[in-house]
Amino acid sequence: MQPSVETVYDWLAEVPDPEIPVVSVVDLGIVRDVEWLDDVLTVTVTPTYSGCPATSVISLDIANALTAKGVEKVDVRRRLSPAWTTAWISEAAGEKLRAFGIAPPVAGSAACVGALKPTEMSCPHCGSTDTEMLSGFGSTPCKALYRCRACREPFDYFKAI
Fold first, then answer.
1. CB of 55 within 8 A of CB of 43?
2. Is the peptide bond before 82 cis (omega within 30 degrees of 0)?
3. Claim: this prediction has a pTM higher than 0.70
4. DSSP classification of residue 48
5. How far is CA 47 from its chain centroid?
6. Inter-CA distances, 111 with 13, 129, 130, Å
C-alpha cells in the first residue's frame, strides 16, 4: 500500500538540510510537490539557488530517506521556475535558525544586487538590533556575515531573496 502524500511530507520533514541541519528540506520550502505517478513517488524540489552545491546531496538524502521508509521507486526532480524565495521558509524554520545562531531572512528586505544599505536585523545571540554587516558573503553564498555591536558576536544572516 502506498503511503499518503501527507505521510510522505511528514517523512520529508525529518530530512535535514545538509548545510543547516537544524532545519528540514520541508522547513526551507524547497520541497515543492509530492505525488504518486503509478508506483513511483515523485518529489519535486526547488533549490535555494540554481548553483547550490547541496542540491545533489539533498536529492540523494530525500531518495535515501524515502527508500528507508519502504518506498521502492523514488524520482526526485528539480524545478527551477518559479525560483525559490525565502518567503517559502516556514515560521518555525526561522525560529530554528535563530536558535542555531543564524539570523533568519527579514521579510521584505530582498534587494537588487548592489543595494547600498545593508539589512538591519536582530542578533540571534542576544537580540540586540545594533548590528553591522561585515561582508555580503558568509559561510555559504546564501548568507551574509554580520556582527553584533552589543555582544560582539559574529553571525550569519540568511539573505532574503
1. no
2. yes
3. yes
4. S
5. 9
6. 30, 20, 21
Nearest Cα residue to 19 out of 9, 27, 7, 11: 27
Q: Where are the beta strands (DSSP E) in 13-78?
A: 31-37, 40-45, 74-78
| The one-letter amino acid at 85 | T
C-alpha cell at 95: 525560529
Q: Which is nearest to 27 in space by CA: 76, 75, 94, 84?
A: 94
The predicted-structure confidence for 71-127, as pLDDT tens digits, reads as follows 999 999 999 999 999 999 999 999 999 999 999 988 766 555 545 555 678 999 999
Question: What's the grid cell of residue 119?
Answer: 539589512
Q: What is the DSSP letter of 79?
A: -
- The label of the residue with cell 547541496 reads 54
